[in-house]
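Propose amino acids for all 762 sites.
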């Protein structure tokens, strides 16, 4: 293959200059820019345990302190989802803006899931949405029976005294397998069915690629390529090839990243394109996926299946022995993947060096993978050396039985095979982004703004208290990466990762390229997953026009800005739906384990709850602070809870043992109480804390609210010293534990403390 003469592009990003980039000054929150008594349109968001709620200004992004508070007296009959006109009427005790509803313009038009119930006076639907407390009256329906789950659309009249609606679909019974997936999709208004017009557009596509489609493309069917994905993956949208360049030509590697050419099938402006735009992304539940494009494309025609010709867009990168990208070239191509591999197969063959697996894959493919691992590890070092964050987050992987019921949850294993593919995809994304930047052509970039300096300094203060940063060390990426390597796999990893994530801003799509601070790159976009992400599809479409010399449309920048905003919103909604479904799966897993005890570590705190991640199964449970006894309160950084008049301190990362008390599937929460915990006293000395249950160990919806940033919550203040115990009796096992404690000490405190040293003789 001949190399084109192109400028050298170093892997390390050049210094950023002000004239090439928009200002990085953080914009003031939209809510903060409102003046007293200024009117605005918003969506009313109900509170799960009251008549008040919040107002989200139309068009405003989600974020801390962006929603305005509404007292129950100022809601004026508004319910969750209503479109309202409101005005600012003051500030809360923490400086947060408050508002009152002036007019209800209409009900939300999104169908809501709920339980259909037959009453003597007629039919009603009890919504599953906890923020909608009202019961919905509905006319008789033939779509569902009493007790079944349905989707109901509210009547548009906001003046009606009784909330009414119409059943529009049956979702199933509570006992149905995977009913939680359908309910999650309904709660977040995810599109699950494809319209007839979309399927009609797919019908003419041939199963095999016609010869005329290949003309003009780079033919790579004889080039050794392979895909590497999870074992459960059905859509394969990226393949790799790697060639070691001869030393006579300077040495190095020729890396090829070949991405499924979805844009060839999805015509701009057609029904399929419109459906993909509205979905924005595929949504992945642990046992099911809601694809962005129909299965015939995502799992067949566009998927880079083994031994089948497929259309692709290829990014070629010539990498020198010093790991500099010397040349890049982008092309339309056609490939034939030699092998469909999983991450574990790559690990078995090339990391564990299994002779049986290497013989099965063959020497040419093993040689490719061996060299790919060597190159990717060096690229990782280069990436970290330029200041990219090396923050690994833990994900849960659910295990299901033959009938599809969750039976276990474990940490998703990650190793060098995962990182190999990630490094190559990062490099391909950067290469395409640089292509658009050099040519000054608008595109949809993936941006990540610089962290908030104040939040980062607060994080640094906490890290210094644990000795992870020196007193004069600034929280630079280099120092942070050294710190993350030091704590990886240790008890402090959960706490530090949680706090660091809070100090970072979210990545998003934007047509204005301000760079990606997390990757320490000036130019970055998403190019490698057009099957499951709409922005990648747009990038492919633009790239094809540029490669073919076609004229770009007028007003491209503004068009892409609208698409980028929609894609970011869809991504946020999909992320929330996936998290909610994970919670649902955890409830299904743990409902048969009530009363059992598990070991875990403290993961975080809210104003009233301590969150504990269990070691096995790998799920999160909530422990109400009131159940600890001793009047515990949480510090302003949400890193520790202090009780027993300051004599017991529980910190993120501390080991605990909990007993599961309740599982609420409807609200997706698992409650527990602590039976024993490793804590510290006021002087930092380690002790074993055995609480006595002072309040019911059952979470309420309001308990789960996170403390508002920028000011203390009421629970941040020290509690009065006088302690009052609940009259409710603790569970049987708690009483047994408390009894044993009383035998050891005639007059125990409310929460007994057992030291780790030897007991002194009486």
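Proposal:
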């Amino acid at each position: 293959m001949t190399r084109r003469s192109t400028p050298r592009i170093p892997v390390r990003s050049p210094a950023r200059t002000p004239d090439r980039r928009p200002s990085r000054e953080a914009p003031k929150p939209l809510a903060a820019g409102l003046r007293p008594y200024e009117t605005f349109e918003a969506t009313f968001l109900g509170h799960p345990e009251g008549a008040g709620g919040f107002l989200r200004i139309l068009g405003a992004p989600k974020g801390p302190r962006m929603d305005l508070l509404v007292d129950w007296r100022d809601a004026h009959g508004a319910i969750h989802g209503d479109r309202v006109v409101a005005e600012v009427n003051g500030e809360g005790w923490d400086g947060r803006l408050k508002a009152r509803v002036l007019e209800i313009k209409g009900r939300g038009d999104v169908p809501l899931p709920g339980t259909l119930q037959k009453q003597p006076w007629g039919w009603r639907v009890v919504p599953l949405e906890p923020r909608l407390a009202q019961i919905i009256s509905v006319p008789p329906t033939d779509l569902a029976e009493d007790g079944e789950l349905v989707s109901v659309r509210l009547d548009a009249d906001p003046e009606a005294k009784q909330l009414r609606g119409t059943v529009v679909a049956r979702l199933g019974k509570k006992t149905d397998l995977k009913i939680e997936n359908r309910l999650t999709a309904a709660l977040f208004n995810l599109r699950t069915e494809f319209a007839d017009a979309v399927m009609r557009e797919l019908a003419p596509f041939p199963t095999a690629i016609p010869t005329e489609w290949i003309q003009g493309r780079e033919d790579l069917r004889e080039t050794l390529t392979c895909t590497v994905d999870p074992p459960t993956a059905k859509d394969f949208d990226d393949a790799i090839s790697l060639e070691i360049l001869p030393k006579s030509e300077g040495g190095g590697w020729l890396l090829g990243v070949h991405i499924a050419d979805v844009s060839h099938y999805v015509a701009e402006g057609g029904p399929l394109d419109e459906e993909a735009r509205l979905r924005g992304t595929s949504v992945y539940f642990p046992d099911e996926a809601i694809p962005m494009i129909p299965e015939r494309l995502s799992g067949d025609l566009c998927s880079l299946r083994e031994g089948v010709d497929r259309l692709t867009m290829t990014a070629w990168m010539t990498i020198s022995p010093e790991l500099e990208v010397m040349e890049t070239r982008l092309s339309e191509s056609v490939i034939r993947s030699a092998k469909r591999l999983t991450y574990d197969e790559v690990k078995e063959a090339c990391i564990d060096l299994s002779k049986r697996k290497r013989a099965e894959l063959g020497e040419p493919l093993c040689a490719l993978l061996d060299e790919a691992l060597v190159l990717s590890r060096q690229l990782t070092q280069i990436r970290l050396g330029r200041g990219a964050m090396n923050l690994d987050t833990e994900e849960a992987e659910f295990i299901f039985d033959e009938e599809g019921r969750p039976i276990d949850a474990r940490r998703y294993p990650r190793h060098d095979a995962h990182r190999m593919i990630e490094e190559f995809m990062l490099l391909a994304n950067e290469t395409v982004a640089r292509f658009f930047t050099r040519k000054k052509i608008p595109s949809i970039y993936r941006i990540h703004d610089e962290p908030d300096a104040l939040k980062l300094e607060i994080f640094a203060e906490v890290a210094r208290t644990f000795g992870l940063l020196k007193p004069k060390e600034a929280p630079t990426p280099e120092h942070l990466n050294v710190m993350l390597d030091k704590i990886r796999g240790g008890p402090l990893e959960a706490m530090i990762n949680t706090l660091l994530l809070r100090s970072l801003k979210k990545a998003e799509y934007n047509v204005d390229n301000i760079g990606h601070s997390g990757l320490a790159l000036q130019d970055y976009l998403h190019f490698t997953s057009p099957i499951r992400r709409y922005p990648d599809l747009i990038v492919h479409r633009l790239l094809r026009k540029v490669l073919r010399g076609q004229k770009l449309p007028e007003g491209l920048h503004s068009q892409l800005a609208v698409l980028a905003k929609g894609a970011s919103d869809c991504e946020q909604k999909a992320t929330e739906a996936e998290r909610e479904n994970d919670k649902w799966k955890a409830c299904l897993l743990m409902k048969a384990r009530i009363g059992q005890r598990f070991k875990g570590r403290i993961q975080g705190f809210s104003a009233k709850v301590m969150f504990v991640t269990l070691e096995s199964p790998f799920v999160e449970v909530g422990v109400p602070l009131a159940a600890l006894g001793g009047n515990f309160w949480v510090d302003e950084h949400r890193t520790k809870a202090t009780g027993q008049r300051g004599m017991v301190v529980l910190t993120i990362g501390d080991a605990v043992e909990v007993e599961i008390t309740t599982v609420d599937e409807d609200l997706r929460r698992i409650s527990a109480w602590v039976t024993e915990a490793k804590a510290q006293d006021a002087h930092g000395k380690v002790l074993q804390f055995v609480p006595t249950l002072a309040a019911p160990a059952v979470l309420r919806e309001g308990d789960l609210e996170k403390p508002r940033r920028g000011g203390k919550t009421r629970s941040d203040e020290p509690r009065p010293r006088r302690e009052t115990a609940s009259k409710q009796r603790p569970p049987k096992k708690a009483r047994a534990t408390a009894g044993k404690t009383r035998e050891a000490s005639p007059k125990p405190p409310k929460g007994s403390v057992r030291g780790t040293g030897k007991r002194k003789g009486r």
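The chain has 15 helices and 33 strands. Residues 1-30, 706-762 have pLDDT under 50 and may be disordered.
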